[in-house]
Amino acid sequence: MYNDKTGFFGIHGIDNLIGEGLTYGSQIMIKGKSGVGKSVLASQFVKETMACRDNCIYVCCDESPKEMRSYLKQYGLHPLPYEEAGRLIFIDAYSLEPTGKNYFSSEDGLEKYLSLEKKVIENMQNGYRTRIVVDSLSTLFLGRDQQEIMEFHRYRLKLLKKLNIIAMDLMVDEVLDESMFKLSAHLYDVIINMYYAGTLERPIRALHLGKMKSGKFDSSQLFYSIDPNIGLIITQNLAS
Description:
The protein contains 8 helices and 11 strands.
């Protein structure tokens, strides 16, 4: 079966910055305030995942799988055929009541989440590479001890790297304090910080992309808009 050696986001300006792409086993943190477009970026990442014939596991923490399916349809990906083929699987970590075998309750411990995630990964051994998106990982951490979070964090990312899975973890600024971001930042290969620039009267969406473990950091500021049908679009030199 076809598998490329590297992965991309499916967003032209960001893919240009990462050059030859991400090696499988890379870990990505997407960080930003609510509403800045993290889930939109994740939707395009899933679309690119399907286009290059990878598997995808999408963990829904902040919205239901039904709402995520609507997002994907809006941006040009109809998830049902991929779900039926076993290449796209949703984990429901949002609903208050169990919705199926791939369900995680916020009242359960992080060890139970790890067990569920590993089980879903094992069931996707179909010859294709796998990517996983957690939207958002910070929600899973709510109300949990800092030591428990860091132990979970380190173990999980080491395991995903060993399995050559590209992991994209979304983090909401308002949910965790800055110290937690600093403690976990070194665990990721790539960090994309999404935020609002400009003025209160005229806010502009912007992002920075950093390559941490490669020893490189691209400090250039990219501006972007969100098209209701396409998704996140990088706009070059918007501020000039």
